[in-house]
Amino acid sequence: MCTVVIDVPHRAGEPVRLLAVRDEDRDRPWRGLGAWWPERPGVLGVRDDRAGGAWLAVDPDASRLAVLLNREDLSARRDDEVVSRGSIPLDAVGAGIPDAPLTRGFNLVEVDAHGAHLVEWDGFEARRTRLAPGTHMIAHHAVDDPGTPRIARWLEAFRDAGLAEGSEWWMPWLDVVEASTVDPSASVLRRDEHDGHVLESLLVCAATVGPAGVELSQATPAEPGTWDDGLIAGLRHGIRPLSSDDSGAGSRATASPRTAQ
Hints:
By secondary structure, the chain is an alpha+beta fold.
C-alpha cells in the first residue's frame, strides 16, 4: 500500500527528489494539497477527510516534507487502544513524532534540505535511519526490500533511468511507472484487495526539497490504479514552489479522488 521512490543527492546543497503514489479506497473522501489544518499554520498537505489527518504533509518555510506508508503492526493492541496514523506526517514536519506512537505500524519518509530519513514503526519499536545517497524505493517493509515484488522488479530500472534536467526531472521515472503496469503483481500503480477492502492508486505527487525550498506537483489517474498520459500533463501543469502563504492550494483541491489536481 503506497510507494515512494526517492533520490538522495551525493553532493551537499542539491535537492532531494521524491515521487509518491497514494493507494487508498476510492470511496474514502480526501482532498488534494492544501492548507487544511488551521491549528497548524503554514502546513500544507493531502488530507484524509474521514480521520482528519494527512497522507503527505509539507512545511514550506522549514523545507520539510513527510509522507506516510502503512506497515504491519506486530503488537496485540486493540483498535480502541490506537489512534489514526494521519497525525504522524503533520507532527513530523512540526515538532516531531513521539518515540512510541499510539498508532498502528507505519513507514514514514521524512525529507528536509539536508537529506532524508525513514522511520519504521512496528508497534513495538521505532527505528529512524538516514537514507544513503542514491535512488531508493519504499513500500510497506524495509527500504529497497527485495521481498516486495515492485521493488525487486523495478528498483534498478528507476536507478538506471535517472533524473531529467529541469523542472520535469520526474519524466524518466514516470516512464518506469508506465512500464511497470505490464505486470499487475509488480506494478507501481496498483489495485489490491487488503483486509476486505480494495485499495487503488489514487494520487501521484512529485516533490523537490532542498535549500531553495519545496516544489511539488500532483496528478490523479482518470481511473484509479491505472496508467494514463494525463498523469504527465497533471504533474506538468501543477509544478509550483510552495510557501506558508500558499493557502490557495487548498482552493484548487476537491474531495473527489478523480479531480483533485
